[in-house]
């Protein structure tokens, strides 16, 4: 399906379909968790969970179409065995993927491990470097 | 024993929604996004069941310990729940899911806003059954906050001839109710039309008024059940009326006039209508306006005429305080400021405000009527999603 919007029409109507879609409802928003920052992370997590479901559904559609056209069967996916080379590439992908999403924990650990001069506070340095 | 037969509990997929001419188009991924949110709503109803455990195991005992007595009312329960971590998580998820649903709907609608507005313009052109009045302003009780977190409420127009809030509302009702109101999202209206036809076969209304109609989804089944009746559907919001009228044309329903008006000041003569209907309307008013509106509805109804109001159940004394408190959630946390007060009122007292007599009072339950053999028959409820279930209380009276 074609996207029906055009930049010209959106400008003319003064609509930003991306930002306006997420517009806040009028009225003060209630926060339920003791720490609103945690609630924001929950909200982002649920949005990402939703997008994973969307991607999963698209993949499911693709598999079913390919199967209906006789290009592959979904049993082939279930019984697929990676070659040694395939397996290596996949495990490497997993390792890289996990490192990417777990970066903050890696860095937290590094801050504990590393020598004190790796953890100097920038605030202190700012004072030090601005001294006349 | 565990019930592992999930098939009876799965909500219908979004492709089952009836695509009338005005319905916004959705891409594969937009449909999938609605599917996710529908399933999330279904899942959250099982999460909600845990609130009962939290209540019995710690919220209530803790309160009793601290105060040397049990809860006196739902307000005390609401207050105590605020510091319970289970309730907090459920609430944070539930609020967030409402917001996700609106973002999903608005992103679908706003990218095609120009097409939708033009379609409505074409379907509405030259029709005397759409009567807009730019002088009408949405009352404060309907515009001070965006009801059920729908950005822009029912009234905001972001450009000329706008229908976007109506289209967004239409796009998501199926998702919020997990398909419980059927593919045309009109299960409530169908339930009322069928109940009236079954209970009162001799009742042949000539003039019907539907108050607070929004996009008219619940008035169309009534208009279809009584095709010779003249039906007036009133709302204060122009975009929902524009959308609702165009939607009605695409269903081939031509006996409904969509009228933009102040429901507190409708200039119909005394006794003009045979049947006045409100559906999920009373809880969106205020203490002052409900009095005045009820008195107006009583005035405009013919002696021997019928007033019916569809609502979620009132908090009667036999409803336990836990259920009252859970049902109250929508008031404070889903932008329904009058919900708690209204549901705490005696329904007979509300009817008396319109001059109706206690001896003429009636009340019955109406479950969503979907179409025979329809695949989107409501999923078997795993546990009740209070305030969203497709089962309503209908109360009203004949005017003597």
> What fraction strand of chain B?
5-15%
Q: Any idea what the CATH architecture of the largest domain in chain B is?
A: 3-Layer(aba) Sandwich
Question: How is the biggest beta sheet of chain A arranged?
Answer: none
Helix coverage percent of chain A: 55-70%
Choose one word for the global shape of chain B: globular
- How much is the average pLDDT of chain A? 89
The order of strands across the largest sheet of chain B is: 1-4-3-2-5-6-8-7
Count the DSSP helices of chain B: 14
Radius of gyration of chain B: 21 Å
Secondary-structure element sequence of chain A? Answer: HHHHHHH
Assembly classification: heterodimer
Can you give me a brief rundown of this structure?
By secondary structure, chain A is an all-alpha fold.
Observed structural traits:
heterodimer; A: 132 residues; mainly alpha; 67% helix; 0% strand; flat; B: 400 residues; alpha/beta; Rossmann fold; 8-stranded mixed sheet; 14 helices; 8 strands
Helix-strand layout with pairing:
The complex is a heterodimer of chains A (132) and B (400).
Chain A: H1 7-13, H2 17-21, H3 36-68, H4 74-78, H5 84-101, H6 103-113, H7 122-130
Chain B: H1 28-67, H2 74-81, H3 85-111, H4 113-124, E1 130-131, H5 140-143, H6 164-176, H7 187-199, E2 207-211, H8 220-225, E3 230-235, H9 238-250, E4 256-260, E5 273-279, H10 287-300, E6 301-311, H11 321-327, H12 329-333, H13 339-343, H14 347-353, E7 361-367, E8 391-398
Parallel strand pairs in B: 1-4, 2-3, 2-5, 3-4, 5-6
Antiparallel strand pairs in B: 6-8, 7-8
Helix pairs in contact in B: 1-3, 1-6, 2-11, 3-6, 4-9, 6-9, 10-14
Structure write-up:
The complex is a heterodimer of chains A (132) and B (400). Chain A has 132 residues and is mainly alpha-helical. Chain A has a domain at 90-132. Chain A contains seven helices and no strands. The longest helix of chain A is centred in the middle third of the chain and has 33 residues, at 36-68. Chain A starts with 6 loop residues before the first helix and ends with a helix. Chain B is α/β, with parallel strands linked by helices and 400 residues long. Chain B has two domains: 14-125 and 136-170, no CATH class; 179-316 and 336-375 and 382-398, 3-Layer(aba) Sandwich (Rossmann fold). Chain B is 44% helix and 13% strand. Chain B has helices at residues 28-67, 74-81, 85-111, 113-124, 140-143, 164-176, 187-199, 220-225, 238-250, 287-300, 321-327, 329-333, 339-343, 347-353; strands at 130-131, 207-211, 230-235, 256-260, 273-279, 301-311, 361-367, 391-398. Chain A binds chain B through residues 1, 3-5, 9, 13-15, 17-18, 20-27, 29-34, 39, 42-43, 46-47, 49-51, 53-54, 57-58, 61, and chain B through 25, 27-29, 32-33, 35-37, 39-40, 87-89, 91-93, 95-97, 99-100, 102-104, 106-107, 110-115, 143-146, 149-153, 158-159, 332-333, 335.
């Amino acid at each position: 399906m074609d996207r029906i919007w055009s930049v010209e029409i959106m400008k003319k109507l003064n609509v930003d379909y991306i930002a306006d879609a997420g517009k806040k409802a009028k009225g003060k928003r209630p926060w339920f968790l003791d720490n609103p920052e945690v609630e924001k992370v929950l909200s982002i997590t649920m949005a990402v969970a939703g997008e994973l479901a969307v991607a999963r559904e698209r993949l499911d559609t693709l598999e079913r179409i390919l199967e209906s056209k006789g290009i592959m069967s979904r049993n082939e996916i279930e019984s697929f065995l990676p070659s040694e080379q395939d397996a290596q590439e996949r495990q490497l992908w997993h390792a890289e993927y996990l490192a990417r999403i777990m970066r903050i924990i890696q860095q937290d650990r590094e801050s504990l491990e590393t020598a004190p001069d790796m953890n100097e506070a920038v605030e202190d340095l700012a004072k030090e470097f601005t001294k006349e | 024993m565990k019930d592992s037969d999930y098939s009876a509990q799965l909500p219908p997929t979004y492709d089952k929604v009836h695509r009338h001419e005005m319905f916004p188009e959705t891409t594969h991924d937009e449909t999938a996004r609605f599917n996710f949110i529908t399933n999330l709503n279904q899942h959250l109803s099982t999460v909600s069941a845990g609130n009962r455990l939290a209540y019995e195991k710690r919220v209530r005992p803790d309160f009793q310990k601290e105060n040397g007595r049990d809860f006196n009312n739902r307000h005390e329960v609401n207050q105590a729940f605020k510091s319970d971590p289970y309730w907090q998580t459920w609430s944070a998820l539930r609020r967030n899911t409402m917001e996700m649903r609106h973002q999903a709907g608005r992103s679908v609608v706003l990218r095609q806003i120009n097409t939708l507005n033009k379609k409505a313009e074409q379907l509405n052109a030259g029709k005397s059954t759409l009567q807009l009045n730019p002088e009408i302003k949405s009352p404060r009780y309907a515009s001070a906050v965006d009801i059920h977190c729908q950005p822009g409420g029912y009234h905001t127009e972001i450009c000329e001839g706008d229908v976007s809030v109506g289209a967004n509302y239409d796009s998501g009702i199926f998702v919020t109710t997990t398909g419980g109101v059927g593919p045309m999202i009109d299960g409530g209206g169908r339930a009322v039309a069928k109940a009236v036809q079954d209970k009162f076969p001799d009742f042949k209304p000539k003039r019907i008024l539907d108050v607070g109609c929004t996009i008219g989804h619940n008035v169309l089944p009534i208009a279809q059940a009584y095709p010779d009746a003249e039906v007036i559907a009133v709302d204060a919001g122009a975009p929902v009326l524009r959308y609702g009228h165009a939607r009605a044309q695409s269903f081939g329903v031509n006996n409904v006039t969509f009228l933009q008006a102040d429901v507190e000041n409708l200039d119909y003569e005394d006794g003009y209508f045979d049947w006045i209907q409100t559906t999920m309307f009373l809880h969106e008013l205020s203490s002052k306006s409900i009095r005045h509106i009820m008195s107006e509805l009583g005035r405009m109804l013919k002696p021997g005429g019928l007033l019916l109001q569809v609502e979620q159940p009132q908090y009667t004394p036999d409803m336990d305080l836990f259920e009252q408190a859970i049902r109250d959630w929508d008031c404070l946390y889903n932008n329904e400021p009058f919900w708690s007060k209204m549901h705490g009122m005696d329904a007979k007292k509300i009817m008396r405000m319109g001059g109706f007599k206690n001896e003429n009072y009636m009340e019955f339950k109406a479950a969503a009527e979907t179409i025979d053999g329809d695949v989107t028959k409501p999923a078997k409820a795993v546990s009740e999603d209070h305030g969203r279930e497709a089962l309503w209380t209908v109360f009203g009276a004949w005017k003597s």
